[in-house]
Every structure is written in structure tokens, then in C-alpha cells.
Specification:
By secondary structure, this protein is α+β, with helices and mostly antiparallel strands. It has two domains: about 1-40; about 40-175, Rieske Iron-sulfur Protein. About 30% of the residues lie in helices and about 25% in strands. It is built from three helices and ten strands. It has helices at about 1-40, 40-45, 80-85; strands spanning about 50-55, 65-70, 70-75, 110-115, 125, 135, 145, 150, 165-170, 170-175. Strands 5-6-7-8 form a four-stranded antiparallel sheet, with no helix packed on it. A three-stranded antiparallel sheet has the order 1-10-9, with no helix packed on it. The structure holds FE2/S2 (inorganic) cluster (FES). FE2/S2 (inorganic) cluster binds near residues 118, 123, 137, 139 and 153.
């Protein structure tokens, strides 16, 4: 009796573990193509060549990070609310005044592409954080808005814009 019960217990454990393993493999299989698609290979980064980024998998409200010339580049798929928040700001209130329209490509208001390096001392700001729901730099408290403009804290300037262009409606080339 004890033997049967023990065997059943063991089989249940095995089934549970096997199911868990399949789940983990399945999740990895989904994530890997996305990363492979969004990140250039090491030789491209080392060469500093332009990189192309497919924006199609980036959901509205999502911010991804890619690397170009070893620098983190944030690509934000802005929601209507985030775009409106960026556009309605009184430029006179900004430490580094710049209209949102000068920070995006014409006809592509939903895409903000910035260098993800804080203009204070070079930390990497955290996305979707801070009072203006753009980025927050945890090093000394600089706060950026949904246009990547500095709004509070010691950083002297907006997050820089890398050179980039749309090569199709859903693809950009950086560099
Ligand atoms: S490095 Fe970002 S606030 Fe100092």
C-alpha cells in the first residue's frame, strides 16, 4: 500500500516538473526571437555601423532598449495620453526648452527615440518612472518627461536624440 502511494506521488511530481519545464521552454522560445530581432549582433555593435530596428513587435506604451555604438537607445511607443502630455507643456517651464515636435519624426509622433544616458553624470534612467511618467534617473534624481526632456533634478539637458530615420512605417535605421 505504501509502495503504490509512493509511486503515485512520484509520478505526480514528475508530471508536474515536466509541465513546468515545457512552460519554461515555451516562454524562452517567445522571448528569444524578440531579443534577437531587436538587438544587433556583437560585430555590428563593435563596428559602429547603422542598425535597423523592427518596431512592429513593440506594443503601445512599451519602451524597449537597443544598443548602438555601445550606447543604450530607448525607443518608446507612446500612447495618445503620453503624446498629449508631451505636446501641451509650456516650453517656458522647461530647463532645456524644446517642443515635442522637434524630438520626433513628422508623422511618427508615437515613436520617441532617445539616447538612454542621463545628461547629468551618465547613469541609465529608468523607464516609466518619475512624476512625468517618462524616465527617472536613480543616481541623483533627474526626472524626464514622455518626450525625454529634463523636467527636474540636476541634469542640464534633455536626453539626446540619436541620428535615425524611418525606412518604413515600422522600421527605423539608427546611425
Ligand atoms: S547621473 Fe542622472 S541624475 Fe546624476
Amino acid at each position: 500500500m505504501t509502495t503504490v502511494s509512493s509511486a503515485e506521488h512520484t509520478r505526480r511530481d514528475f508530471l508536474y516538473i515536466a509541465t513546468g519545464a515545457i512552460g519554461a521552454v515555451g516562454a524562452a522560445a517567445v522571448v528569444v526571437p524578440l531579443i534577437a530581432q531587436m538587438n544587433p549582433d556583437a560585430s555590428t555593435i563593435a563596428a559602429g555601423a547603422p542598425i535597423e530596428v523592427d518596431l512592429a513587435p513593440v506594443a503601445e506604451g512599451q519602451i524597449i532598449k537597443v544598443f548602438w555604438r555601445s550606447k543604450p537607445i530607448f525607443i518608446s511607443h507612446r500612447s495618445k495620453k503620453e503624446i498629449e502630455a508631451a505636446q501641451k507643456v509650456d516650453l517656458g517651464s522647461l530647463p532645456d526648452p524644446q517642443p515635442d515636435s522637434a524630438r520626433v519624426k513628422p508623422g511618427h509622433d508615437q515613436w520617441l527615440v532617445v539616447v538612454g544616458i542621463c545628461t547629468h553624470l551618465g547613469c541609465i534612467p529608468l523607464a516609466h518612472q518619475g512624476q512625468y511618467e517618462g524616465w527617472f534617473c536613480p543616481c541623483h534624481g533627474s526626472v524626464y518627461d514622455t518626450s525625454g526632456r529634463i523636467r527636474q533634478g540636476p541634469a542640464p539637458a534633455n536626453l539626446p536624440l540619436p541620428p535615425y530615420a524611418f525606412v518604413s512605417d515600422t522600421k527605423i535605421r539608427i546611425g
